[in-house]
Amino acid sequence: MSIISSRNSSGGVPIVREANMLKPVQQESINIAQQAIKKYGGYHVGQRSNIAKQIQSDMNRKYGRHWQCIVGNDYGSAIAFKKQNHIVFQIDRAFITLFKGVC
């Protein structure tokens, strides 16, 4: 687990909980998530799907297709992902699981 210590525009310090991803892609994933949270006025239950779709769209555009994103604060998951394409991180109350599927 590594902790990114800089404050961000969404109000919290991002905390990486689990990662199998190159550091530059980790940082870009966090930046994309921060922008999505800001775009939708912060983390709110009614905006989770919109935030996830925005993150997915931006990652697909930047790193190729098949990215999947889960945003929430109470969920379980069992996923298969491509090597070096998985991260779980937290920004304030939002937990974000982001991975590139094996399709």
UniProtKB/TrEMBL annotation:
SMART domains: Dynein_light. The keyword Cytoplasm applies. GO terms for biological process: microtubule-based process. Its main location: cytoplasm. GO terms for cellular component: cytoplasmic dynein complex; microtubule. It is found in: Cytoplasm, Cytoskeleton. InterPro entries: DLC_sf, Dynein_light_chain_typ-1/2. Keywords: Cytoplasm, Cytoskeleton, Dynein, Microtubule, Motor protein. One of its GO terms (molecular function) is dynein intermediate chain binding. Pfam families: Dynein_light (PF01221). Belongs to the dynein light chain family. This is Dynein light chain. It comes from Didymodactylos carnosus.
